[in-house]
Amino acid sequence: MASYKPVVVPSFPKLGEKITKDTLYWKHYKAPIQIKEFGAVNKIDFSPIPPYNYAVTASSRIHIYGRYSQEPIKTFSRFKDVAYCATYRDDGKLLAAGSEEGIVRLFDISGRAALRQFDGHTKAVHVVDFLSDKYRIVSGADDYTAKVWDISSSSEIISYNEHTDYVRCACTSKLNADLFVTGSYDHTVKVFDTRREKSVMTIEHGQPIESVNLFPSGGLLVTAGGRYVKVWDMLKGGQLLVSLRNHHKTVTCLCLSSSGQRLLSGSLDRHVKVYSTTSYKVVHSFNYEASILSLALAPEDETLVVGMTNGILNVKHRKHEGEKALLNKRKRPVYRTFLKGRNYMPKRDDFFVSKPVKTYLKKYDKLLRGFEVSKALDAVLHAHGKNNFPEVAVAVIQDLNRRGTLKNALAGRDEEQLRVLLSFLISHVTDERFAPVLVNVAEMIIDIYMPVVGQSPVIDKQFLKLQELVEKEIEHQVELLEVLGMMDSLFATMTRKKPTPLDEDKTEGS
């Protein structure tokens, strides 16, 4: 009796992401460290001076972490309610924060008690920042106002009451000590000059604004609100340059890389997108396990810290070239050991001892050898759910079809088994690599289970989803054919007409 031949899994081209310099750069981080905070992390801010500690604002505490510490090295907890937006001054010596009480507090990094307390807002202060002269503070609150405070006297310098909804974000200019920008839930961004009593510019974003950021040059302003990230030219009176819609939920935070050539945005859809500031295209994306509220990058992009709604602080450190070289150095002797004797040529007097090679069969191969076709298909589908290798499942389906037992394997399934099979089809039926095989499977399933449609709401819902998916794919194919026809027409008109002998004679006669 001939021995059983295992199922041959064909190699399909991988539809992975295109490897670019940005991909290599942003993937060059170690495995993330996760730190549990007391509540949702609403702000992360890096100190501008070495050793680049960072302040994390969550619940009623502000924790100061070292670059590589997993426990806070300092805590400010003099808040009766939720604290917001702890921000460093440019010299890294002072820290300002707002609170749910409507009070702005100023802390010395070397101390614990508040140095100054600024009272004047009647509702929660969600945003605080230092003007670049280092002696004034800007704050925005839910009482629709933005105020400028003098640090030395703890007094209010000026108050702006132009917004008609909560002021939830602000940023200050690094070049002009009198200029700052506020964003509000009234869909507007306002640019203020502390030397004037009213705003000098108003920009309509179109959605409630969650974050604003000025480029270091001060010429470009980035706003985030709703699903949109928009870039405005300040030197042209707030003209819209580009509108980006790469998230499918609200964008909550913005951040620039240390070089200013990359813009990062975090969203409630659990993604961080990295944009090029020259083409404004997404060059990389990070995925997280919860909705993102805040993010920050250390100088030279050495550390990426993300705060989430579930109170988890995700910290990624960049790998250093020295560590990578040391790791490769450790692997070399082991690698040489495995290759030792590989190219040895036997001599005339050598005896060759052959060792029988034991064949290890996969679970689905063992079941196929025993003609248990339905169980073999179940085994490969459950393995796909764990490891996500659709090539193996498709190879088993092709082998069952070759044997003529595919219909038997698909029939006689209970609700759970059919649900798993339909989930696999929904995930991969539109994949061009597997479509020829899986479309045939979908037709068989419809023929087999059509008499029992309507008995299970779960299965009915999956059938409808499969139908919508196929109809959508057909629409895309029709649109592509139309575009192809348009392109053929354009190319036909662009081809140069070759001169005929008659045309040449007319040219010579004239």
Automatic annotation (TrEMBL):
A GO cellular-component term linked to this record: endoplasmic reticulum
Ranges in coiled-coil conformation: none
Example of a GO biological process term: positive regulation of rRNA processing
PROSITE patterns xrefs: WD_REPEATS_1 (PS00678), WD_REPEATS_2 (PS50082), WD_REPEATS_REGION (PS50294)
Presence of keyword Transmembrane helix: no
Keywords: Nucleus, Repeat, rRNA processing, WD repeat
Subcellular location(s) of the protein: Nucleus, Nucleolus
Domain of life, per lineage: Eukaryota
U3 small nucleolar RNA-associated protein 15 C-terminal domain boundaries: 343-490
Short name of one Pfam family: WD40
WD repeats: 118-159, 160-202, 244-285
PANTHER family cross-referenced by the UniProt entry: U3 SMALL NUCLEOLAR RNA-ASSOCIATED PROTEIN 15 HOMOLOG, UTP15 U3 SMALL NUCLEOLAR RNA-ASSOCIATED PROTEIN 15 FAMILY MEMBER
Function: Ribosome biogenesis factor. Involved in nucleolar processing of pre-18S ribosomal RNA. Required for optimal pre-ribosomal RNA transcription by RNA polymerase I. Part of the small subunit (SSU) processome, first precursor of the small eukaryotic ribosomal subunit. During the assembly of the SSU processome in the nucleolus, many ribosome biogenesis factors, an RNA chaperone and ribosomal proteins associate with the nascent pre-rRNA and work in concert to generate RNA folding, modifications, rearrangements and cleavage as well as targeted degradation of pre-ribosomal RNA by the RNA exosome.
Protein name: U3 small nucleolar RNA-associated protein 15 homolog
Organism: Anolis carolinensis (Green anole)
Gene that this polypeptide is encoded by: UTP15
